[in-house]
Amino acid sequence: MSLESAKMGKISEHFSDTDMLIIKPQKKNPLISAMILLALLMICGVYFCLICLKQKGFIINPNSMRIEQIERSCPNPNISKSEVPYVHYPEPTTYRRNECRCTPVRFFAILSMQRSGSGWFETLLNSHINISSNGEIFSVKVRRSNMSTITETLDKVYNLDWFSSASKNECTSAVGFKWMLNQGLLQNHDDIVSYFDKRGVSAIFLFRRNLLRRWVSILANNHDRDTKQLNGTHKAHVHSKDDADVLARYKPKINESLLIPTLKQADKWTIDALKYFKGNRHIVLYYEDLAHNRTKLKEVLEFLRVPQRKLKSRQVKIHTRPLSEQIENWDAVSKALKGTEYESFLQSD
Ligand SMILES: *[C@@H]1O[C@H](CO)[C@@H](O)[C@H](O)[C@H]1NC(C)=O
Ligand SMILES: *[C@@H]1O[C@H](CO)[C@@H](O)[C@H](O)[C@H]1NC(C)=O
Ligand SMILES: *[C@@H]1O[C@H](CO)[C@@H](O)[C@H](O)[C@H]1NC(C)=O
Ligand SMILES: *[C@@H]1O[C@H](CO)[C@@H](O)[C@H](O)[C@H]1NC(C)=O
Ligand SMILES: *[C@@H]1O[C@H](CO)[C@@H](O)[C@H](O)[C@H]1NC(C)=O
Ligand SMILES: *[C@@H]1O[C@H](CO)[C@@H](O)[C@H](O)[C@H]1NC(C)=O
């Protein structure tokens, strides 16, 4: 803002100089001339204010353009050649990065599936001062209508022009969001792979090993969406043990004939996604590993090239008991999975 008003001031000064040149030859009553000049100045001021407000300060001034050019060249970061495509200096259109304009920014996307711990993972990342992960932005259907709306949305995020509660704006050094495989990602994979390639976006795959637990979580979450068990509001994630206990009380009944096909489907999505994006810079994480081994998080921070810090989340796990206590028709389910490749899901966390 201050820069804009300074620019405005400079322009009206220029203007007043030329005005004076035009007015001078008349030279009648110095007081009247001064008054006219003052009035002209005021009109000009108001006029330029209006223009500036309308166009957000895009008055082209050779001086300021030169300054921006100088501003753009930041000192070369001390990085290896292979890192260069992943380092960016975004210039947001909605604000200035100010003292952080030379802080290099990495682009990432968390590629995941619903109920795989990505909400929890994202709160952990956002507890880092240099990371902004902007949530599930493609849950809004119009944004994933076609590749042009997808590109437009991605450009806005990576230009640091996306505003969410997670955006830390000017001093962010890693920016991203989470993207579910079924939110236009697999559908448009060719174009998205080339976008990631071109813009140097790194992929963070986050999957859940135990797909049966994931399914229980999906069914319980759907149930809560309908019944709103916590004081009449639906909660996909909770911050207290009491709330978690309330949600975990519900034991879903699983349709046995859908059991194997559903697990196979989720497996296939995972395999496809890894295949499509194998040429992009990526890391593969499993929810179970992150939950049991916090040093895994160090790897993530290294991958994002941000300083190591302790990450925190207020979220509390909902389903903590053995699956046998959390599935209504446990006997039928365990019978259906015995002897299949998914048998281990019955016992593991
Ligand atoms: C650049 O990085 C290398 C290795 O990370 C380090 O040894 C070197 O001192 C750095 N140079 C400067 C100028 O910071
Ligand atoms: C992280 O953010 C802090 C606070 O905004 C900033 O001072 C620091 O330079 C940033 N560090 C990196 C590596 O971007
Ligand atoms: C993409 O989707 C948007 C929003 O639904 C629509 O306005 C636009 O015409 C579509 N573009 C193409 C190329 O299909
Ligand atoms: C919701 O209800 C529980 C008791 O069932 C209560 O302890 C809690 O404070 C309530 N939370 C809100 C946000 O009203
Ligand atoms: C289980 O799923 C099958 C296939 O979609 C369906 O035909 C059947 O009615 C379902 N059974 C129950 C009890 O919902
Ligand atoms: C925890 O993760 C780190 C980093 O991936 C790994 O080196 C270590 O072996 C893991 N520890 C356990 C107990 O799995």
The second-level CATH architecture of the largest domain is 3-Layer(aba) Sandwich
Judged by helices, strands and strand pairing, the structural class is: alpha/beta
Low-confidence stretches: 1-27, 52-71
Shape: elongated
As a percent range, the share of strand residues is 5-15%
What's the overall average pLDDT, rounded? 83
Say what the CATH topology of the largest domain is: Rossmann fold
CATH class of the largest domain: Alpha Beta
Query: What is bound: which ligands?
Result: 2-acetamido-2-deoxy-beta-D-glucopyranose
Tally of individual helices: 13
Would you count the extended β strands for me?
6
Note the main sheet: 6 strands, parallel
Instruction: Specify Rg, calculated over alpha carbons.
Output: 28 Å
* Straight-line distance between termini: 53 Å
Number of domains: 2
Element-level helix/strand string:
HHHEHEHEEHHEHHHEHHH
- The helix fraction, in percent, is 40-55%
How are the elements arranged and paired?
Blueprint: H1 2-23, H2 30-55, H3 62-72, E1 106-112, H4 118-126, E2 131-133, H5 147-158, E3 174-176, E4 178-180, H6 181-185, H7 189-199, E5 201-207, H8 211-227, H9 241-248, H10 256-276, E6 282-286, H11 287-292, H12 295-304, H13 330-337
Parallel strand pairs: 1-3, 1-4, 1-5, 2-3, 5-6
Helix pairs in contact: 1-2
The protein binds 2-acetamido-2-deoxy-beta-D-glucopyranose (NAG) (6 copies).
